[in-house]
From TrEMBL:
Record's protein name: Phosphonate ABC transporter substrate-binding protein
Signal peptide feature range: 1-20
Pfam families: Phosphonate-bd
Keywords in alphabetical order: Signal
Family: Belongs to the phosphate/phosphite/phosphonate binding protein family.
Organism annotation: Paracoccus aurantius
InterPro entries, alphabetized: PhnD (IPR005770), Phosphnate-bd (IPR017797)
NCBIfam families referenced in this protein's UniProt entry, alphabetically: 3A0109s03R, PhnD
Keyword Signal: yes
Length: 304
């Protein structure tokens, strides 16, 4: 009996390194949500890719799908290991498969808060200074899986008497494809007004401290003096950095620590990854998104 137990222990000990090797990753893939063009997304996150490659010791690649759903499906299917999702995109991932990803970090604003806003914008020279002025005109949404570019305004606007059904209050309601596309469409006069995201802190002329407007200003796409804010949502929970749940724990720990320490390691890199000025990334759990998940569940039920 003792000999059998000894052989079992020896066999188990020999198998452990093999099991560890089997769990080791061979590559790591980061999905970058839409909001700006693919090349700018790659450029903003290249520093993170390099740091991750050094930390993990395996090839790390960035993926910039054309729409939000491309990142969501990549995470659900296991072809992506990490992404910074909007709250609504996380809600969709969770409602589709609760075991697919886990939220680990959330971006903090300069004042330490972890919320942002859906911001309604229009051109000054279009004679639109409020939602009332948009009656009979064209409103632009971003992506169906965007929190600030669709979900929140599609819920809050009707509660204030502004139906988002095409032809009811607005003459038409169009999806532009993303935040950058919405901002450009408003600036070019392709739509009369649109919604995008910003932390709402700092100066309007800068596109606020962080968000799609700040990125558009940095890219030279718009002069904020040509635009006006016509609406602002209630505060929205900032979306989470998520990791695939089935990753080895040491990989999850390393990537969480890497992103959490990015503001100290490389402030310029943190600026690019966080879409503007940030105090860094804080720990977050699923509980922070339960309200958004309920809103998304209700909206999906209406459409079914």
């Amino acid at each position: 009996m003792k000999r059998t137990l000894t052989l079992f222990a020896l066999t188990t000990a020999l198998a452990l390194p093999q099991l560890a090797a089997a769990e080791a990753i061979k590559e790591f893939n980061i999905g970058v949500m839409g909001g700006e063009n693919a090349q700018d997304r790659m450029t903003s996150n290249e520093c993170l890719r390099k740091y991750a490659e050094e930390e993990l010791g395996v090839p790390v690649k960035l993926f910039t799908p054309a729409d939000y759903d491309g990142v969501i499906q990549g995470l659900l299917g296991g072809s992506l290991d990490m992404a910074w999702l909007g709250a609504s995109a996380y809600a969709k991932a969770f409602l589709t498969n609760p075991e697919a990803v886990e939220p680990v970090l959330v971006k903090a604003n300069l004042d330490g808060s972890t919320t942002y806003f859906s911001i309604g914008i229009a051109r000054k020279d279009r004679g639109v200074a409020s939602l009332e002025d948009l009656k009979g005109k064209v409103l632009g949404f971003g992506d169906p899986n965007s929190t600030s570019g669709y979900l929140i305004p599609s819920v809050e606007l009707p509660k204030s008497g502004f139906s988002v059904e095409p032809g009811q209050y607005f003459s038409d309601v169009k999806f532009t494809g993303g935040h950058e596309q919405t901002i450009v469409a408003v600036n070019n006069g392709d739509v009369d007004g649109g919604v995008t995201w910003a932390d709402g802190q700092g100066e309007w002329e800068d596109g606020y401290n962080s968000g799609a407007l700040r990125k558009a200003v940095d890219a030279g796409l718009v002069d904020m003096n040509d635009l006006v804010e016509i609406w602002r949502s209630k505060p929205i929970p900032e979306g989470p950095v998520v990791l695939r749940k089935s990753l080895p724990q040491d990989v999850k720990d390393k990537m969480t620590a890497l992103v959490a320490g990015l503001i100290e390691t490389d402030k310029d890199c943190a600026y690019g990854v966080a879409a503007g000025e940030t105090a860094g990334f804080k720990p977050v759990t699923h509980d922070a998104y339960e309200s958004i998940i309920e809103v998304r569940k209700l909206e999906e039920a209406k459409g079914s």
